[in-house]
């Protein structure tokens, strides 16, 4: 079985770096843990870092977090589905909202459960995903403030995730101004301006973050050390907290291009090949992971002499190049992942999840040599 590892030491170093950064600017932050897909041992590693607040977009995962540490503050970070309202109130201390009718249902349920449910109201700032339109924002708040057992604790926005609209000083200033407007008009205090995400971190370094932005939601930068704004890695953070290992299950020298009439493959693609490859051979390894587990465009071998040349539902084919390290059947190939690759891998029940406590793998090492702790 292919497996993924989480390096405890590197995760803590990334966490400490971000925690120091946010503390120096009086910013509160929450870890977006959806990439763990509810894996209890990985979540336990996260909670042990000492974070006060964890976000997720799946209520099942928030329930798991509460089962590990009931007093941690949980945040549901997408507009709730009405059928999940009871569980949202039970397992999420805070939820992000954009629909008044849904908030009314949260209010009724909060009264029923004898709880105060906190909400952050999301504002549309151009990404065109979730968010109340700006011209409706004041009236929206006016109605919400009248609902029992609902406490508005923040104004927030989402940028970059769908269309790639980048945060900038002007957009975030708008968010701050709307918060000031709501507080002045309704004589209320709104504690959070949740305008920060991984993509917003570089604005801190450039002194472009408005002082009012006091809450960040961080996933990718913590786990992959990514400067999302510039699509690169931060030099002072680890980008290999997670590693993916797949075992070679076949290794043969084969022609570099297929023979026969080509139709569509499993993914609906019609492949084409360079004529210069005709008659050449390739040292090809098949590994025990496939499109069912991850899209091949979101992972790549750490060894740059290797290249993914094909994939099907359960197998990926890797050209080993000269194979100077002498890989053989049973050897492991190490892959790195981007954020979507990590998310898909973690969501696969067919990839083992392990804790890396300092074990190292060497070229040609067989799967059986692993001493990593399985957490499935």
Automatic annotation (TrEMBL):
A matching Pfam family: Ala_racemase_N
Q: Which UniProt keywords apply?
A: Isomerase, Pyridoxal phosphate
SUPFAM superfamilies for this protein: PLP-binding barrel
State if S-adenosyl-L-methionine is listed as a keyword.
no
Q: Which InterPro entries match?
A: Ala_racemase, Ala_racemase_N, PLP-binding_barrel
Cofactor(s), by name? pyridoxal 5'-phosphate
Q: Which residues form the Alanine racemase N-terminal domain?
A: 8-224
Query: Which GO CC terms are listed, alphabetically?
Result: cytosol
Q: Which residues form a coiled coil?
A: none
Q: Does the keyword Isomerase apply?
A: yes
Q: Which Gene3D superfamilies does this chain map to? A: Alanine racemase (3.20.20.10)
The molecular function terms of the Gene Ontology recorded here are: alanine racemase activity; pyridoxal phosphate binding
Please give the name of this protein.
Predicted amino acid racemase
Could you tell me which species this protein originates from? Chitinophaga eiseniae
């Amino acid at each position: 079985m292919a497996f993924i590892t989480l390096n405890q030491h590197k995760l803590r170093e990334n966490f400490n770096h971000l925690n120091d950064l946010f503390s120096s600017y009086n910013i509160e932050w929450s870890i977006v843990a959806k990439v763990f897909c509810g894996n209890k041992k990985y979540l336990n590693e996260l909670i042990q870092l000492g974070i006060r607040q964890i976000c997720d977009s799946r209520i099942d995962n928030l329930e798991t977090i509460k089962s590990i540490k009931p007093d941690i503050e949980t945040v549901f970070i997408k507009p709730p589905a009405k059928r999940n309202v009871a569980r949202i109130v039970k397992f999420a201390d805070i939820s992000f909202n954009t629909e008044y009718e849904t908030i009314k249902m949260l209010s009724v349920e909060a009264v029923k459960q004898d709880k105060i449910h906190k909400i952050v109201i999301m504002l549309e700032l151009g990404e065109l995903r979730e968010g109340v339109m700006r011209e409706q924002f004041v009236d929206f708040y006016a109605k919400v403030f009248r609902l029992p057992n609902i406490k508005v604790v923040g104004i927030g926005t989402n940028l970059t995730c769908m269309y790639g609209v980048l945060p900038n000083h002007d957009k975030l200033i708008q968010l701050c101004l709307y918060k000031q407007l709501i507080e002045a008009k309704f004589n209320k205090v709104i504690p959070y301006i949740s305008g920060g995400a991984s993509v917003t971190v570089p604005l801190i370094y450039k002194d472009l973050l408005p002082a009012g932005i006091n809450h960040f939601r961080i996933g990718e930068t913590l786990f992959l050390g990514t400067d999302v704004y510039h699509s690169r890695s931060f030099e002072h953070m680890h980008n290999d907290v997670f590693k993916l290992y797949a075992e070679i299950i076949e290794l043969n020298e084969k022609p570099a291009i297929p023979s026969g009439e080509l139709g569509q493959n499993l993914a609906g693609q019609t492949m084409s090949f360079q004529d210069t490859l005709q008659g050449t051979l390739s040292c090809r390894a098949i590994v025990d992971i496939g499109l069912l587990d991850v899209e091949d465009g979101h992972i790549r071998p750490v060894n740059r002499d290797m290249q993914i040349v094909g994939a099907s539902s359960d197998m990926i084919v890797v050209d080993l190049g000269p194979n100077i390290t002498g890989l053989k059947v049973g050897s492991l190939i190490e892959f790195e992942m981007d954020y979507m690759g990590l998310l898909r891998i973690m969501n696969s029940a067919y990839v083992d999840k392990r804790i890396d406590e300092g074990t190292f793998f060497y070229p040609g090492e067989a799967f059986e040599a692993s001493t990593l702790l399985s957490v499935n």
